[in-house]
Prior knowledge:
CATH class of the largest domain: Mainly Alpha
Distance between the termini: 41 Å
Mean pLDDT: 77
Number of domains: 2
CATH superfamily of the largest domain: RNA polymerase sigma factor, region 2, helix turn helix motif
Shape: globular
Strand content: under 5%
Helix content: 55-70%
Structural class: mainly alpha
CATH topology of the largest domain: Rna Polymerase Sigma Factor, Chain: A
CATH architecture of the largest domain: Orthogonal Bundle
Amino acid sequence: xxxxxxxxxxxxxxxxxxxxxxxxxxxxxxxxxxxxxxxxxxxxxxxxxxxxxxxxxxxxxxxxxxxxxxxxxxxxxxxxxxxxxxxxxxxxxxxxxxxxxxxxxxxxxxxxxxxxxxxxxxxxxxxxxxxxxxxxxxxxxxxxxxxxxxxxxxxxxxxxxxxxxxxxxxxxxxxxxxxxxxxxxxxxxxxxxxx
Length: 195
């Protein structure tokens, strides 16, 4: 399967008509990426699965609004960003914050090796990964969004700006602040002025 940005234009043109072949190729190309993005922003796998399903349901409902002449990835990730933001504003999310602790295991699911392969990894590497997960999970949502889109989705700043409804300069500043905050949280001691 080609990377999502390289889906055949003829296939993309059939998406608004909900063509079965186009839908299958789209789902295959995007589902895991959207799930990984959302999992990077929320605290549990189950919640990430639920939100990802919500995103694809919303995409299916709104396919007629997709313009096949425009890139697909920003459209898809805009829907994902908005769904996560809706969750963060929800009463259930705020109640969940009161009821649970910020355990490291609930942190960011980085695109490192899954913990299923943990016996093969040195203990120090696992501890480092847990530290990074906790540091990223502790970032404010606006910084976390930019970081996950840039680092894990490898999106350029202009696409991130489009997805987040912002401008490129603001996105670059948030990314810089996110990196500085991560350095600080991970003990590299970023200077106070960069935070």
